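=== RUN LOG ===
request id: a7f3
mode: sequence -> structure
chains: 1
length: 280
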Amino acid sequence: MPFLELLDETLDINSTANYQLVLQVSPNEITYCILDTLRNKYILLRSSEPEENRLFDSSKLEEIILEDEFLARKYKKVYIITPSAKMTLVPEPLYCSNRMQDYFTFNHQIEDAETILENKISNPDLHIVFSYPKRISEFLSAHFSGVKLLHHINPLLKHLSGLNKNIAGYCIQLHIEKEFFNLLILDHNTLRFCNTFSFNNISDILYYVLNVFKKLGIDQNEIVHMSGSCFRYDDLYSGLISYIGNLRYSEPSERFTFSYVFNEAVLHRYLNLFITPDCE
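=== RESULT ===
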């Protein structure tokens, strides 16, 4: 099982009351980071992934969480990110809490093992309605009592909205997960586009991104911020740079600092975790 751990020597397991925990859980990975709130400094990143071409089932995810010494501690604040390709955005004026299933089934089919969840976002003013494995959802809600599960688009939208306030024009985010990617486009702090695309290869990503640019009339020299499962000068980067002239890897807010054990590649790879405490 592939495993990553970056740990600052100042980390004290007995001081978690002064720390915030940001945990991301999906069949593709379980990853978390710890923020020392006294110094506004990230001091731990730990990630486990299944073997290639496999997924974690619910039992394995529960086992990893229950056996992890840091995930058994009490924290000042806990955030849980739940990546899901199946989501629908509903503007606040149209939203009614007792119609969540109707909103979801307008675009997606509910599987027997799924539950429907919702997040409210104030900027832009909308609700994210999404599905997530029911057993994992129930386990996380019980193990981390009182913690709301956040769709992975939640912090990305808030982060992008903050960036767009200082940009006169488009703010574009390309976020890559293992089996799908998200393309988010804001223009003068107005959400122009937000969608999820499944992909099998890099050509699929290029096709969808360039097609959206063409339909929205976006110049291919606009800055595109990248995050998630992408790496500098990998095949995806090489393919995109042939058509999009201005690619940048996303960076978390300067409000936080990072232990010296972290590196630049880690910051955009796990952007969602690092930006979540800054997006309340």
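=== NOTES ===
The longest strand covers residues 190-198.
Helices lie at 58-67, 100-105, 134-143, 153-164, 202-216, 235-241, 264-269, 271-275.
=== END ===
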